[in-house]
Amino acid sequence: MASIVLRNVDKIYAGGVKAVNGLNLDIKDGEFMVLVGPSGCGKSTALRMIAGLEDISGGEISIGDRVVNHLPPKDRDIAMVFQNYALYPHMTVEENLAFGLKLRKMPKAEIAKRVQEAAKMLGLDQYLKRKPAALSGGQRQRVAMGRAIVREPQAFLMDEPLSNLDAKLRVSMRASLNTLHERLGVTTVYVTHDQVEAMTLGDRVCVLRDGLLQQVDTPQNLFDSPVNLFVAGFMGSPSMNFVNAELVRSDGGAAVAFAGYKLPVPDSTFAEKPGLDQYLGKKLILGIRPSDFEDAVAANGSSGGWARIPTRAEVTEELGSEINVLFLIDAPPVEHKDTVAAQDTGDDEEAALPLVGDKSLWTARVNARSHVRPGQNIELAVDTHNLHFFDTDSGLAIGHPANVGR
Ligand SMILES: Nc1ncnc2c1ncn2[C@@H]1O[C@H](COP(=O)(O)OP(=O)(O)OP(=O)(O)O)[C@@H](O)[C@H]1O
Ligand SMILES: [Mg+2]
Q1: What is the DSSP-derived secondary structure letter of residue 225?
Q2: Model's pTM, two decimal places?
Q3: Which residues are in the ABC transporter domain (predicted)?
Q4: pLDDT, tens digit, for every residue of 211-231?
Q5: Which of 177, 193, 253, 362 has the fewest CB atoms within 10 Å, i.e. is most exposed?
Q6: Which domains does the chain have, with CATH numbers?
Q7: Beta bridge partners of 27
Q8: Using alpha carbons only, how large is the chain's radius of gyration in Å?
């Protein structure tokens, strides 16, 4: 096992595309690091440079204590798993698993031992004599994983390994990957553009945009304290709601005004976000996560002190344990380049919602105990301790440690 360090790593493809731009990343020994971002942001390029499948145009990559800039892939002691894994169709599962080790002239007994262990770990014991054609998609993907595991490499590099699987299988494979990582503790760099995968798998998550690192942090910190509008809009599903707002002084203290509403801003928020007081009397962009809403009726007790927003449910999506309530607010959608880019995830269906002139469509995620139906009025409670504020010009989160003094 080994740490992986990237120092000012650039990739400029022939033709001049700067796919990765001055990337710095310290991946700890045994860490599960996820690279996430919209299509074309440079995730695969970064991974392929670590693997040695792509030359680097500038900077330095180290695996363990070796600089590997000029080492060919086979000497880097890493194993890759791709989206389009190719199993050998004429070989059994067992032979597929053993193949790489045979090439390396490993003793037969050692090969048998490793294949047995990997098969057991992946629940493939009973399929060892089958050929890939007689396996399900998930089982094939596990064989591909197994081929990486038997090599006992210093690091796993995985590029969207689950994206060819159906949703249910993806969830169960995600769980297996988590268990596997806990058991083996091998340093893993995992590429995905699925932010749910990123949140559930990563010890830390690195968010990229146009080849530039936006933020690298634990999933919880990315969710709670995104560094800018782009990360705020990209991480979290459904996405954070945004609106142009104004920070004002009112009788009870500070408040944020938007679309005819006025939410109190607690003193603790000013303490947590240094520099926010400078925005009093000024415009900024307000962000509220869907999960920071609750149906005021269903939310007896816990949200008693929360602010209230009366509105009307346009659409409700019942998810079993929760309900997404889509509602309109009387303010035009925020047209910041960062909020637009964050929505551009390549495969989202949400973007298909009709635009509604100068109103914005927001989402509140409320408890399933709520009996709200489309077309009904609803009073939403808002947790005002979790409001997010962004500078209108730069899109940076106001008071975020990484932005203070910028
Ligand atoms: N061989 C290449 N030659 C020229 N440009 C390339 C090459 N490979 C990738 N690019 C460009 O580099 C940028 C980053 O590509 P990359 O494949 O790393 O993106 P990605 O984040 O993995 O996207 P996706 O989520 O779609 O897989 C893109 O603009 C892409 O068009
Ligand atoms: Mg890719």
Answers
A1: S
A2: 0.90
A3: 4-235
A4: 999 999 999 999 999 999 999
A5: 253
A6: 4-232 (3.40.50.300), 234-390 (no CATH)
A7: 4
A8: 24
